[in-house]
Specification:
single chain; mainly alpha; 52% helix
């Protein structure tokens, strides 16, 4: 899944800078679940009587959560051609409520952000001759 800011219904918005500024080094999160917990998009199980459901965590960086919300969830309703909207519709078709589908979409956006930030940081470090753990990369030659 990929979010293209140009597809945003209110025009181009730049949340990438906010995400990078709030996150820092993406390698400090060993898993995408750890990053989701940090952003507040990790699901929390709630149970009542015979029903078991999930909701989004109220913990985590609320500003970063807002960037995820603006970047992924707000693009969903007005952009039937984008991947986020297709994912949201698929979740609704699976029987999820609109709120549950939105929670799932936020989690998918968070996964994509984490993977993209790690990939980009790896490329940046390779270009500079370093590695994610700070050990210089030896180039055979």
């Amino acid at each position: 899944m990929r979010f293209d800011p140009a597809e945003h219904p209110r025009g181009r918005t730049d949340h990438g800078g906010g995400v990078l500024a709030r996150t820092g080094n993406p390698f400090r999160f060993p898993t995408e679940a750890a990053f989701a917990a940090y952003t507040g998009t990790a699901p929390v199980e709630i149970a009542s009587a015979d029903q078991s459901r999930h909701r989004l965590s109220r913990l985590g960086d609320r500003t970063l959560n807002g960037c995820v919300h603006d970047g992924g969830v707000r693009a969903k309703p007005g952009s039937p051609g984008n991947e986020g909207h297709a994912y949201y519709r698929r979740k609704l078709d699976e029987g999820k409520t609109p709120r549950e589908a939105q929670r799932c979409l936020k989690r998918q956006v968070t996964k994509t952000l984490w993977r993209t930030m790690r990939r980009d940081e790896r490329c940046r470090l390779r270009a500079s001759g370093s590695s994610p753990d700070g050990v210089p990369i030896s180039v055979p030659g």
